[in-house]
Amino acid sequence: METKRCCALAGELPSSINNLVIRHIYNQETTLEAAIQQDQDLALQAFDQEPLLSSLSPEQIIDLFDEMVANTKEYLVGW
Asked: What is the reported pTM?
């Protein structure tokens, strides 16, 4: 599998920075795909990969995701 490389306007990112950024790119792609497909399971997978949630237990992540979906239901037509 070929590793994606981020390319800023000023050129290619150093590997150490690229490795930090690429995780977020993949996660944003998964989030977008979940929204397009209206796939709650895929959206939860993307949400679960969010680095800011790493201190939460799997149960807390699911609860937070369910709360987020419930509170934004009016904007999530078809969910």
From this structure: 0.76
Return d(Cα 23, Cα 19) in angstroms, integer.
7
pLDDT per residue over 24-44, tens digit each? 999 999 999 999 999 999 999
- CA–CA distances in Å: residue 41 to residues 4, 50, 62, 69: 25, 15, 11, 12
DSSP letter at 63?
H
Tokens 């037509």 correspond to what residue?
Answer: 77
Task: Decide if 4 contacts 12 (C-beta within 8 A).
Answer: no
Phi, psi at 8, each rounded to 5° = -80, 170
